[in-house]
Amino acid sequence: xxxxxLSIAFVAFTFTQSLAQIPDGGFENWSSGTCDExxxxxxxxxxxxxxxxxxxxxxxxxxxxxxxxxxIQTGELGxxxxxxxxxxxxxxxxxxxxxxxxxxxxxxxxxxxxKGWYRAQPENGDSYSMIAVLINENTGDSVGVAIxxxxxxxxxxxQFIEPVQYLNQQTPTVLQITMFASDPLDPQDGSTVYxxxxxxxxxxxxxxxxxxxxxxxxxxxxTDMVFFNIGNVENxxxxxxxxxxxxxLESTVSEMNNQLNVSTLSAGTYIWEMSSNTxxxxxxxxxxxxx
Length: 291
Prior knowledge:
With 291 residues, the protein is mainly beta. 1% of the residues lie in helices and 53% in strands. The chain is built from one helix and 26 strands. Strands 4, 9, 12, 14, 15, 17 and 18 form a seven-stranded antiparallel β-sheet that branches. Strands 1, 5, 6, 13, 16 and 19 form a six-stranded antiparallel β-sheet that branches. A four-stranded antiparallel β-sheet has the order 23-22-25-26, with no helix packed on it. A hairpin with a 5-residue loop joins strand 7 and strand 8. It is globular, with a radius of gyration of 19 Å. Residues 1-20 and 203-211 have low confidence and may be disordered.
């Protein structure tokens, strides 16, 4: 999974206000069924349980605190599918057909960092991760991103703290969190990760950011072709990712050739990243595709 999406802005924290909790971040509430479901979160259990696979489960034997934690596990579907399904859980809506995640929970803060507790048992060099994206749905822009990723086996509950990399001065309207038991590009059967007590540090943030106002994409939403203003950059590379972290398009753009064909993409929300030819990250944003 690509993690350099975060190297975007320079952040200075001024003072801590409070410590707050993610809605249902303690995973104490579950609904019963063929596969138990964490309240307030979406999973792929609805698509896999008919074949006997529960990729998200309630962990009661060894939670970090309270009575429950979240267990996410990658598994293999047998006949007639024969496919390895990466375990994932999100507070947005997971669309299996378009491989996208949309929405999240209402959220208007600009926190300094996201944190939580985890244990992990990856298989065959697999990776696990938690991605928190702050989105302004009024403008369609991503406001900030925090990604926690690991590859090591961790048997005891361990805390992670990931600072938010802010992309602009906007106020978010939605927080979208997605957690993976595997690298979606190469999921390994049996890879398992546990999460508990997700929260964030609420801090007033001052941002020193590059002048990126001239870099943008239009039209947005798009149907077939999108065009990029690349500012003062002579040539740039544009990569487009779906909300599961999979790269779906890549192209080199310039002032004379600044278009990208998105007609093959399913309707949904995507993240675009623009970098210079030398690899310097320039800007990240949200692209909406309509059909």
